[in-house]
Design a protein that fits this description.
136 residues; alpha+beta; STM4215-like; 8 strands
């Protein structure tokens, strides 16, 4: 059973925290390492960090005239600051959880700017009705 991808970032943050919270590291201030950007996430901490980019990207043009359907996707990055075998296993396990929980989820791997920490990037698609028509 897939989870519904929410239309707003705070709801997505809460959903991801429930899904992967036990595997998250911490920021240097001791808070769980899950963050919705903007502003940028704290750079220091331990373990696995989950970054949600505040503005979803548009996947394709909207359809409809007065009422339209938007095709959007949240961008989520997992950054593993623990490069040990255990840390890499945590990253893989959390990646599996995300991939298996969101329908249409796509994954890509990259290295961080410093090439020090492994990163997995996810695109979590959803549709949104713009200018909904409400019947009285």
């Amino acid at each position: 059973m897939f989870l519904d991808t929410p239309e707003d970032a705070p709801t997505l943050r809460g959903l991801l925290e429930r899904l992967i919270g036990s595997d998250l590291g911490t920021f240097s201030n001791g808070l769980p390492a899950i963050w919705v950007e903007d502003p940028p996430a704290p750079k220091n901490g331990t373990g696995l960090h989950c970054i949600i980019y505040y503005r979803p990207r548009q996947l394709r043009p909207s359809i409809g005239l007065t009422q339209s359907i938007q095709f959007l996707a949240w961008q989520v990055s997992l950054i593993q600051l623990d490069r040990s075998q255990e840390g890499i296993e945590v990253l893989a396990r959390v990646g599996d959880k995300i991939r298996n929980s969101f329908q249409g989820c796509s994954e890509g791997a990259s290295a961080s700017v410093s090439d020090r920490y492994p990163i997995l990037n996810y695109s979590l698609p959803f549709t949104k009705v713009a200018n909904p028509i409400y019947l009285a």
